[in-house]
Each structure stands twice: as structure tokens, then as C-alpha cells.
Amino acid sequence: MPDDKMTTTDAGELLGILPSSVKGLCQRGTIAAEKRGRDWWIAPEEVERYRRERRGVGRPKKETGRKATARDDRAEGR
Asked: Could you state, in order of their start, the residue ranges of all structural domains in the chain?
């Protein structure tokens, strides 16, 4: 592993995404990486930066519990 960098597989495991998704992020420049041959090498700091910045992205989590159930029941007219 050159210069204490990680592969797309390692980065994907830390980020909870597929290595192919990490590769796409590298190709678009969203994650700074160095391509050596067919492999992408990513600094751990860069993976951490991306993880911090993407926090909160995506669909909000569904509420669960008694309050959420009562609210859903009222909304549906039960």
C-alpha cells in the first residue's frame, strides 16, 4: 500500500458504500485520489473528510415508537 493510502475497497468499507461507488467519487473528483495503474489510492484523511461532509445526506429516518404510531393513526383517520 503506497504512502499509507487506502484502496477503494477499504474506503468503501469505512463509508458503508460499494468500492465501485468510491471509484465513481474518485473519477468525479468528489474524493481526492491518485490513480496508479488500475487502482485508486485514497488518503485516510480524505475519506474522513468525505464522511463528515456527507453526514445528513439522504432520506430522513422514519419515526418509530408510540408517538409516531399515534400520529400515523390520526392522519389515516383511525
From this structure: 2-59
Burial (0-12, 13-18, 19+ Cβ within 10 Å), 38: exposed
Domain spanning 2-59, CATH class: mainly alpha
Please check whether residue 12 is in contact with residue 51, taking contact to mean a CB–CB distance below 8 angstroms: no
Q: Is 8 left (phi over 0), alpha (psi -120 to 50) or beta?
A: alpha
Per-residue pLDDT of the chain (78 residues; tens, 9 = 90+): 566 999 999 999 999 999 999 999 999 999 999 999 999 999 999 999 999 988 766 666 677 766 666 666 666 766
Task: Assess contact for 50 and 14: CB atoms under 8 A.
Answer: no
User: What is the spatial distance between Cα 28 and Cα 26, in angstroms, rounded to a whole number?
Assistant: 5
39-41 vs 34-36, strand pairing mode: antiparallel
